[in-house]
Amino acid sequence: MKHTWKYYSARRRINIDEYLKKNELTTYDKFASHLRSISVIPPLSKDCAGMFTTSKPTKETKKIEVAADTTTTATKPATTNPRKKKTRTKATQAKVDEIKTN
Q: What integer pLDDT is reported at residue 37 of this predicted model?
């Protein structure tokens, strides 16, 4: 099961600067490749704007960014039942009406 970088780094209490130095990750592409190798979904390159020197995104990186942007949302039921639920049976309601009239 793949986890996002946000979850992974929070869970392990990772300091990003130390992590990049320790793993010798100098570009976003290396960072993203490293994360994919350990089954972690990398953050978008725009979210990592200040961490690396600017480099041109590759085709693979663009595909990953598009895939990471698409999220599934829970769908609502098509329609709700417009009929009001009756809490009393017809016989019970008839008795109540009879008592009210007397």
A: 92
Structural tokens at position 75: 């769908």
DSSP secondary structure string for all residues of 42-68:
PPPGGGGTTTS---PPPHHHHHHHHHH
What's the pLDDT tens digit per position in 61-80? Answer: 566 555 555 555 556 665 66
d(CA 16, CA 8): 11
Instruction: Return phi, psi of residue 69, to 5°.
Output: -75, -30
Cα(42)–Cα(3) distance, rounded to whole angstroms? 9
pTM beyond 0.70: the answer is no
Burial of 15 (0-12, 13-18, 19+ CB in 10 A): exposed
